[in-house]
Amino acid sequence: MRIDKFLKNSRIIKRRTVAKESCDQGRVIINGKIAKPGDEVEVGDIVEIKFGQGIMKIEVLSVQNNVSRDNSKEVFKVL
């Protein structure tokens, strides 16, 4: 799954366009490499997202196209 779509589906970032812009600005890193919006994310990948002064580091647990609000926390684990 594309990283911009994963960030939107997991509700880490509210809109896919914002996720795409974050990738374009170099704020998203997958396994130590700066991510482009079309880069694929797989189970077990470590993703770092820079939000202002903080960094959120997560591990991908599941890749699903449709995730309900209640289950959105089950697709990733905060490290």
UniProtKB/TrEMBL annotation:
Pfam families assigned: S4 (PF01479)
Example GO biological process: rescue of stalled ribosome
Domain RNA-binding S4: 1-64
Sample GO molecular function, one term: rRNA binding
Keywords: Protein biosynthesis, RNA-binding, rRNA-binding, tRNA-binding
HAMAP family, sorted: RqcP
Subunit structure: Associates with stalled 50S ribosomal subunits. Binds to RqcH, 23S rRNA and the P-site tRNA. Does not require RqcH for association with 50S subunits.
Purpose: Key component of the ribosome quality control system (RQC), a ribosome-associated complex that mediates the extraction of incompletely synthesized nascent chains from stalled ribosomes and their subsequent degradation. RqcH recruits Ala-charged tRNA, and with RqcP directs the elongation of stalled nascent chains on 50S ribosomal subunits, leading to non-templated C-terminal alanine extensions (Ala tail). The Ala tail promotes nascent chain degradation. RqcP is associated with the translocation-like movement of the peptidyl-tRNA from the A-site into the P-site.
Family: Belongs to the RqcP family.
Protein name per its UniProtKB record: RQC P-site tRNA stabilizing factor
Gene that encodes the chain: rqcP
